[in-house]
Amino acid sequence: QVQLVESGGGLVQAGGSLRLSCATTGIIGIINDMGWYRQAPGKQRELVAVVTRGGGTKYTDSVKGRFTISRDNAKNTVYLEMNSLKPEDTAVYYCNALIGAVGYWGQGTQVTVSS
Asked: Taking CA 55 as the corner, what is the angle to CA 89 and CA 78, rounded to the nearest 5 degrees?
């Protein structure tokens, strides 16, 4: 059974930093893209960043230059380094792993940025 477990969320002041991690278990096969999404209250879930197995990255415009996504293929783990956090970054952050054509989700971790 595939499981994704996020960690590293919390409460931080504006301008601060957090590092999210997403560990996976029960993986059979190769993980293609791994990504981070977020969902703020009353809003739709949105893509934050994605990293391919080869290390290619893509970011939503609002986090470019502040967030960095990375992965460890040996550990099937993905990370999100978040710097210069803003109150508008407040959301539940979810990791996603694409295995074949199936996407798997974690349970989410809350990130709250106070002004």
From this structure: 50
Is it the case that residue 1 has pLDDT exceeding 90? no
Cα dihedral 62→57→97→54 (10° resolution): 180
Of the candidates 92, 100, 74, 85, the residue with the CA atom closest to the CA atom of residue 12: 85
pLDDT band for position 83 (cuts 50, 70, 90): very high
What are 56's two structure tokens? 């290619």
Q: Which helix (H) or strand (E) holds 82?
A: strand 77-82
Is the predicted pLDDT of residue 8 greater than 90, yes or no?
Answer: yes
Tokens of 58: 């893509």
SS3 5: strand
